[in-house]
């Protein structure tokens, strides 16, 4: 690629991102401002008639307010709503309908910004972005909480591209040049020196991948099919890099992907800091968060003292009636606020500088908390799930080396509201996948021994997607549900792969739910498999709701523990037993979401000991070559069951 083509590629990406941003912002702040409270509430975007029942200092020193329904108006707790933990919200005074539209416009921007940290049936807790002493609303009034669209990630991604475009090609960081084909990729020369591994449990392929990543001069990819110990391999790489006194930035597309690594690094007592809002972090990693580090640092304590002084002066200013005195107090507060900011910044810089490892989301890697720090190595986990523009945020900082880990054969990056034909689907090509396409297999090492699935469960994904490379480790190769404590031996628990063909004779009808009920009944109630070890997954959200209702009425005791979810929510997770409901059974033989091999791959690689597929082979087999192959495989290798035998079994 020459410089001109590089610029064209960037322009195309920026254009696509702008489109994606527009799609995301369909429910934008302007939209929200236009709709009245009632309409927003009906769409699940607002909670009305609230009042602040309590405020306190939460984790990381954040001011938290708890909101409860105004008891004079609402009874029976918080009504159903769509606000989730981690959502960005605005707390606003709720204007009565008699207030004129013009006034409404003026007040739409006012309010307190924050993040939902708990969403219960009686209360909603919001961690505020600023200290509660600076409330810009009258908290004695009735309040509403409105979900706010967030386009900051798009802006940051677009800015990253524009910054890259503004540089002369020769001045670009070398990794960026390789990523865009402006420079060649040279695989590392194998070192003769034997590496001392911290984790001797690593298998040979994992060790090879660690050496490969350490020897690479600029770029190395670790391809980790399901359950192959990608995270374990990355942890070893990070420990080896720390031992070489290198400074590392560890990123991932989501908070959970970053926390997963932070959690596993915890026991090694390496100085590290996790950047990010404490409300969005796993409880187990909060102690490593920047907010907590600030709170307990000497600089942070000083900042706290200044804050207290500000609070005092603020209170005094409210009390005094003397104009001169009040002005003086406000001047003092302004100066203190400035000092507070400077000291806080310095404190953050000190903490980040002292940390060997900094962990943040890809988006956070462009944030001001770490923007002035240099890193030797950037590590990106779950890189197959990151938008290319996201991955470029830390890379544009110019580290000498980047190690990307992921699996481009599982779910791609999520793109807002995309239909099959949308040009936005081009954004599904991650940097990880593009690098493999551009530079070929020499840029990666593929982990091939998996520690999750019974051999029979692993077999089809291995053949269909991983060139038959996967091997089941001896510890899992033949494990069955019946090997679990307190599980008795039945037809179900001794079988790793079962296929209920709801339509073996070629008819159609989307109702295959009888099979689910009988199936979960057989496994959970009769055989002693713990409900928490079972999950039901399906490619369709609508089916999740339908199945939830059925399971709830059929098994009220186990319902809360059996997880029922869409495929997309299960990436990166596992269960002992998975019931996979394929749903599609119709005249037109449409397979919808099932046509995506990557989604299906995620679905079929979640179980450890038992996979039960429920579907209509006639419809499914017509979906794609991959699906046809799978149906043939199941026919030959699975324990086949047909709906009319369900009745006989019960
Ligand atoms: N060399 C090994 N020996 C024994 N167990 C291992 C080894 N490597 C990984 N495991 C185990 O395999 C499981 C999966 O490991 P890990 O979480 O690192 O995999 P992953 O590839 O990141 O998983 P995912 O498919 O969710 O991306 C863990 O329980 C881990 O302890």
UniProtKB/TrEMBL annotation:
One of its GO terms (cellular component) is cytoplasm. Its EC number is 3.6.4.12. This is DNA helicase. It is an enzyme of class 3 (hydrolase). It is found in: Cytoplasm; Nucleus. The keyword Protein biosynthesis does not apply. Residues 216-428 form the AAA+ ATPase domain. Belongs to the DNA2/NAM7 helicase family. It comes from Arthrobotrys oligospora (strain ATCC 24927 / CBS 115.81 / DSM 1491). GO terms for molecular function: 5'-3' DNA helicase activity; ATP binding; hydrolase activity; RNA binding. InterPro entries: AAA+_ATPase (IPR003593), Coronavir_polyprotein_1ab (IPR050534), DNA2/NAM7-like_C (IPR041679), DNA2/NAM7_AAA_11 (IPR041677), P-loop_NTPase (IPR027417), SF1_C_Upf1 (IPR047187), SMUBP-2_HCS1_1B (IPR048761).
């Amino acid at each position: 690629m020459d410089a001109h083509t590089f610029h064209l590629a960037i322009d195309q990406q920026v254009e696509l991102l702008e489109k994606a941003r527009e799609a995301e912002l369909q429910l934008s702040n302007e939209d929200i401002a236009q709709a009245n409270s009632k309409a927003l509430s009906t769409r699940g975007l607002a909670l009305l008639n609230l009042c602040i029942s309590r405020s306190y200092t939460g984790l990381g020193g954040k001011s938290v307010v708890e909101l409860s329904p105004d008891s004079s108006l609402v009874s029976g707790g918080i009504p159903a709503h769509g606000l989730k933990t981690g959502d960005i919200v605005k707390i606003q005074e709720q204007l009565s309908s008699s207030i004129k539209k013009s006034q409404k416009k003026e007040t739409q921007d006012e309010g307190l910004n924050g993040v939902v940290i708990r969403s219960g049936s009686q209360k909603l807790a919001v961690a505020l972005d600023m200290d509660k002493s600076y409330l810009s609303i009258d908290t004695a009034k009735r309040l509403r909480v409105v979900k706010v669209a967030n386009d900051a990630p798009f802006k940051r991604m677009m800015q990253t591209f524009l910054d890259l475009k503004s540089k002369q090609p020769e001045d670009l960081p070398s990794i960026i040049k390789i990523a865009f084909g402006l420079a060649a990729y040279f695989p590392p020369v194998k070192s003769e020196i034997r590496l001392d591994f911290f984790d001797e449990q690593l298998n040979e392929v994992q060790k090879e991948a660690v050496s490969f990543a350490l020897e690479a001069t600029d770029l190395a990819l670790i391809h980790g099919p399901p359950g192959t110990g990608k995270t374990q391999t990355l942890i070893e790489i990070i420990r080896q890099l720390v031992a070489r006194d290198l400074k590392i930035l560890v990123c991932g597309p989501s908070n959970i992907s970053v926390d997963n690594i932070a959690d596993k690094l915890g026991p090694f007592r390496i100085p590290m800091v996790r950047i990010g809002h404490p409300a969005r972090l796993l409880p187990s990693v909060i102690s490593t968060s920047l907010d907590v580090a600030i709170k307990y640092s000497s600089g942070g304590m000083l900042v706290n003292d200044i804050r207290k002084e500000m609070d005092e002066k603020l209170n005094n200013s409210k009390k005094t009636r003397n104009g001169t005195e009040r002005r003086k107090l406000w001047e003092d507060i302004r100066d203190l606020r400035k000092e507070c900011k400077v000291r806080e910044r310095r404190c953050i810089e000190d903490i980040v500088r002292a940390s060997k490892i900094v962990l943040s989301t890809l988006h956070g890697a462009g944030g001001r908390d770490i923007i002035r720090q240099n890193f030797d190595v950037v590590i990106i986990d779950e890189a197959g799930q990151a938008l290319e523009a996201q991955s470029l945020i830390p890379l544009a900082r110019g580290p000498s080396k980047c190690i990307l880990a992921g699996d481009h054969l599982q779910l791609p990056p999520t793109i807002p509201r995309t239909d099959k034909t949308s040009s936005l689907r081009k954004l599904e090509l991650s940097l990880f996948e593009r690098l493999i396409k551009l530079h070929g297999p020499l840029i990666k090492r593929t982990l091939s021994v998996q520690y999750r699935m019974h051999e029979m469960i692993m077999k089809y994904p291995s053949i269909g997607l991983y060139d038959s490379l996967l091997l089941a480790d001896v510890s899992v190769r033949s494990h069955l549900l019946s090997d679990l404590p307190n599980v008795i031996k039945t037809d179900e628990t001794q079988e790793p792969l079962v296929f209920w063909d709801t339509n073996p004779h070629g008819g159609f009808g989307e109702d295959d739910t009888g099979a689910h009920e009988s199936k979960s009944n057989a496994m959970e109630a009769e055989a002693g498999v713990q409900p928490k070890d079972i999950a039901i997954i399906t490619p369709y959200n609508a089916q999740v709701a339908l199945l939830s209702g059925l399971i709830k009425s059929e098994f009220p005791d186990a319902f809360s523990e059996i997880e029922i979810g869409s495929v997309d929510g299960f990436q990166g997770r596992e269960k002992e037993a998975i019931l996979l409901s394929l749903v599609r059974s119709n005249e037109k033989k449409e397979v919808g979401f099932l046509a995506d091999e990557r989604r299906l791959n995620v679905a079929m690689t979640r179980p450890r000991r038992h996979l039960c597929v429920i579907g209509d082979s006639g419809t499914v087999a017509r979906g794609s070559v991959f699906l046809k192959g799978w149906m043939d495989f199941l026919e030959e290798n699975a324990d086949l069951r047909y709906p009319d035998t369900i009745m006989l079994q019960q």
